[in-house]
User: Which sequence fits this backbone?
């Protein structure tokens, strides 16, 4: 099955708690007409996912639930065969992990 990450946003450290997501992704899966809002923890492990009929509905719900404006989302458009990951996917994952580490250090320094 192919997964395509359409958009993603790293949540500010102050917006997250112990059980709160650190990263949100809007994802499609091969053969499915809707989209999923995937909630990931600091280790990029899936916490939960929510299904929507469109990207716009997922963005609206993310704005309501997490206060994330549509402008904050990064366009990704990377497809990968599950469970393997493409080089672009691995690079993006490393970039997110670096951002999460930086946010953790900044919140400790405050």
Assistant:
């Amino acid at each position: 099955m192919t997964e395509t990450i359409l958009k993603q946003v790293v949540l500010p450290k102050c917006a997250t708690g112990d059980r709160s997501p650190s990263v949100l992704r809007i994802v499609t899966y091969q053969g499915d007409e809707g989209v999923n809002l995937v909630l990931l923890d600091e280790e990029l492990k899936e916490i939960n996912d929510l299904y929507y009929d469109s990207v716009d509905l997922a963005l609206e719900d993310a704005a309501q639930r997490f206060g994330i404006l549509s402008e904050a989302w990064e366009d990704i458009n990377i497809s990968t065969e599950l469970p393997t990951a493409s080089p672009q996917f691995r690079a993006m994952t490393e970039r997110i992990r670096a951002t999460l580490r930086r946010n953790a250090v900044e919140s400790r320094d405050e």
